[in-house]
Each structure stands twice: as structure tokens, then as C-alpha cells.
Amino acid sequence: MITLPGQPPDTSFWYHAAYVAATLIYGGYAVSLWWRRRRWRSPS
Amino acid sequence: MKLSKLGVLAVLALIAAYVRIIYFTPIEALQGAAQKIFYVHLPSALMGFAAVGIAAVSGGLYLWLRDARLDRIAESAVEVGLVFLSAVLVTGPLWARPIWGTFWTWDARLTLTLFLWFILVGYVILRGAIENPELRARYSAVLAILGAILVPFIHLSVYLFRTLHPQPILIKPSAPSMPGDMVETMMISLGAFVLLFAWLLHERYLLAVQREHASEALERDDALVTSPVMAGRSA
């Protein structure tokens, strides 16, 4: 991690990784709910 | 699943929160941009704990009233809570890596949160393993109550044990130890996560209802096929 004097450290990679991970977790779960509701609705 | 009004509202609120976090919230001087993980980590944790609380209350009420709707609420709350706690257990280590220098440490709060996550996984497995609906509801209600007992300990663990996890800076008796604009961002994010939680819980509850109706219809069909009248007709 390279830090210039008076500058905050560059930790943006971890920040982006966390937001991508959270979006995937919540988005993935919403899609799984949609898929499961569709499956139970359709006549088997 | 058509996106309901609550779903649209939750998605719009999340987009607004993300824009506020990314473009209109200052970068913390000591931690850099990684500090912004906090705006997703804390609301996810609060909603995860709320889900466990809802499951325990619904489970407790089920043991008393034996109303199947309460069991469905508990089942839905646990699954949604599991998703929120998974987000906590992923975003936490992604913050810890640049700040602590390690993804994980067997610290009291981290370990207890992981333990709660395993209890919720156990709850889901338990429900899948028991076929009798009444027995399944009873056993899972007890497990949800046991899981909820852990929540206050997780909150207090930073006071009770020597821990690396930061002390509460927002949910504490005194005023928040954050600048005003960061507190505002946190409140916007918290509001968005409350909407997301309510939407996912509602959708999960509807799925439980739908599944139960489908199972009942299947059972009726089976009973019809195996009844002597239908058996005679098919023969």
C-alpha cells in the first residue's frame, strides 16, 4: 500500500470488492427467490 | 415474481444509498475508501440480527398458538437473515484485510457471528430433514429461540472480551462518534437496507405460502389416485 504524506491510504480495491460481493449476494438471493416462486407456480 | 412496489422502492433506495456513499461521502483519513464498507456491513448486521429476533418471536408464538403462518414467518426470516449475515461475514473480512492485515481472527465478535451463521444453516438443514410439518415447526422454533439468545452476546462481546473488532460508534448510549455527514449516509443506507429486508422477507413468505398450497394440491391428487373409486376407474 503506497501512501503519500497527508493522503489517506489507497484501500479502494477492498472497498470495490466488498460492494461487488454484497451486490452479488443480495442480487443472487433475489434472483433465487424469483426462480423458486416461478417454479412453484408453474404446473409440474 | 413481478417486482412489487416494495421491491421497486427497495431497489431505488439502494441505488440512492450507493450514489450517496460513492460520490457524496468523504473518504476517512486513516482507513481510506475501505471505511465505506461500514455503510453496507453495519446495516447488513442489524438486519441479520433483526431477522433472528423475528424468527425467535414468531417461533415462540408458534409454540403457544400453533398457527402455521407464524412458522412460515420464522422460516422466511431465518433464510433472509442467513443472506444478510453472509453479507456481514464477507464484507467484514474484506474490510479487515487492509486495516488489520488479515481477513480473519478468532476474535469474540467474529467467532460468535460465525456461530450464529452456523445455527441458521443448521435451522435450514433441520427443516429439510423433518417431513412432519408440526414436528418441524416445533423443533425449528426452539432452534430459532436458541439462536436469538446469542444476539445480545454478539453486541456486548466487544465490551465483555478483549477484541480487535471496533467498539460501537453508532449504536451506543452516547452520541455517535462519526462526523455528521457520515452519520447521514449511514442513516440513508440503513433505511435502504430496512426496505430491502422487508421486501425479501415478504417475497420469501409468499414463496412459503405458494409451496404449501402446491404440496397440498399434490397430496390431494395422490389421495384421489390411490382412493378405491379412482383405482377401480383406472383398472
Please report which band the strand proportion of chain A falls in: under 5%, 5-15%, 15-25%, 25-35%, 35-45% or over 45%. under 5%
Q: Count of helices of chain A?
A: 1
Count structural domains of chain B.
1
Note the gap between the termini of chain B.
Answer: 41 Å
Overall pLDDT score of chain B: 91
Overall structural class of chain A, as computed from helix and strand content, comes to mainly alpha
Uncertain runs of chain B are none
Specify the biggest β-sheet of chain B: none
Q: Please give the number of β-strands of chain B.
A: 0
What portion of residues of chain B is helical? over 70%
Count, helices of chain B: 7
Stretches with pLDDT under 50, minimum 5 residues of chain A = none
Whole-number radius of gyration of chain A? Answer: 20 Å
Share in helix of chain A: 55-70%
Name the chain pair with the biggest interface and residue counts per chain: A-B, 25 and 36 residues
Alpha-beta content class of chain B: mainly alpha
- Radius of gyration of chain B, in angstroms, nearest whole number: 22 Å
Give the number of DSSP strands of chain A: 0
Fraction in beta strands of chain B: under 5%
